[in-house]
Write a structure and sequence with these properties.
single chain; 385 residues; alpha+beta; Elongation Factor Tu (Ef-tu), domain 3; Rossmann fold; 3 domains; six-stranded mixed beta sheet; four-stranded antiparallel beta sheet; 9 helices; 20 strands; 26% helix
């Protein structure tokens, strides 16, 4: 739990653990109620899908958490935050009186933190059917992902656990033995997989997605706090390996199962006609659990590269968790450094809640494109004991 903080002890809270820990901490102070997402049953808005890197599309009183779900720790006037705190208009617990908030004390030593980034687990589900030979699509896909200089997996391989499933299977359509295990710095394994297995065969999309879902269970379960993600890239209508089931139905069912398992699904279509796009839209909607989900387009090499960049850069977050609690109202007195450089509050970093800071603007871009480190230091008056 959060509890009292020791200056020399560093640990991070998983995404799913932050809410539980906060509720437990506030309950110890006499909080009379759970937040809207911790009640039984939870508020329906807690199940909404959102984009933490975009505009807040959550219902009033909710914010978008890093696992792409709308969330709220509290409701205004609900009393969930405990003594000295109040609920913000997006469901976060903040200092209840800015004027009376603890002020930094020059004689009080600073408390240092190592902010911990959220590292997603991304399974690429890649269509290698015979039609991917058309117009250099397979070559463009490989270049967009694993080009040694510009490939999005290559650039971000230290920021996410990447793995890949290609379909159909090379030797047997539905075995999908040709996979690359999700690991950090795994771009070379994925490049080797794609280089060794070119286009050929049918498009068993649903079966491949089911295989990808299974890869997130058992020994393949993501590390604690790592949100699971499937990125499907395909250039055709789905079918099945045995020819006995409807490929479209299988694909929608698999996307629905992924969403139900808490896996974020992103869908990218290459060179599809209007009717094909409409069918792929159904898969995307099922994977997002909502109508009108984005179907990314990759009809030429530049567009394909941009689509992968948007999807994968979007799931690599610039929000960082810190151990202990800080007062958001006076957080600007803290010092955050990226690669040894001090960042400016408000334009390069900000405090989102008691346990989360976010790098913004060019600092976020730098964080995603380098393997450098982030450190944070706050005067003890900013730290909530």
């Amino acid at each position: 739990m959060i509890g009292n903080m020791q200056p020399t002890t560093f640990r991070s809270l998983s995404l799913s653990g932050i809410a539980t820990a906060l509720v437990a901490a506030f309950a110890a102070c006499g909080s009379p109620a759970a937040g809207p997402c911790d009640k039984t049953p939870p508020d329906p808005s807690c199940a909404e899908t959102c984009d933490p890197n975009g505009a807040n599309t959550c219902a009033s009183g909710f914010h978008c958490r890093l696992d792409n779900k709308c969330y709220a720790f509290c409701t205004q006037g609900g009393g969930e935050c405990g003594d000295g705190l109040q609920c913000s208009d997006d469901g976060r617990c903040i200092a209840s009186n800015v004027d009376a908030a603890p002020q930094p004390d020059a004689d009080c030593p600073a408390v240092n933190f190592t902010p911990m980034p959220v590292t997603p687990s991304v399974q690429l589900v890649l269509d290698r059917s015979g039609s991917m030979n058309t117009g250099g699509r397979w070559t463009s896909l490989k270049d967009a992902l694993v080009n040694p200089t510009t490939g999005v997996v290559k650039v971000l391989e230290a920021k996410a656990y990447f793995g890949a499933t290609i379909f159909p299977g090379v030797n047997t359509c539905n075995q999908f033995d040709q996979t690359a295990t999700r690991v950090l710095n795994g771009s070379n394994a994925i490049k080797t997989l794609l280089d060794a297995n070119g286009p050929g065969g049918s498009t068993p999309t649903g079966e491949a997605m089911t295989k990808a879902i299974a890869s997130f269970t058992g020994a393949g379960a993501p590390p604690a706090g790592s949100p699971p993600v499937i990125v499907l890239a395909t250039d055709g209508d789905p079918n099945s390996c045995d020819g006995n089931s409807d490929g479209q139905t299988d694909s929608i069912a698999a996307a629905t199962a992924a969403h139900a398992a808490g896996i974020n699904v992103f869908v990218l279509g290459m060179n599809l006609g209007t009717a094909q796009l409409a069918r792929l839209q159904q898969v995307a909607d099922a994977g997002a659990g909502m109508a009108g989900a984005t179907v990314y387009r990759g009809d030429n090499p530049a567009e394909l590269k941009a689509a992968f960049d948007t999807i994968i850069s979007g799931v690599v977050s610039c929000q960082l968790t810190i151990t202990g609690n800080i007062n958001v109202a006076t957080a600007s007195s803290g010092t955050v450094r990226l690669n040894g450089r001090t960042l400016m509050y408000g334009t390069e970093w900000r405090a989102l809640d008691m346990n989360t800071i976010e790098l913004i603007g060019a600092a976020c871009t730098e964080l995603k494109s380098t393997t450098g480190s982030v450190t944070a230091s706050f005067p003890c008056g900013v730290v909530i004991e």
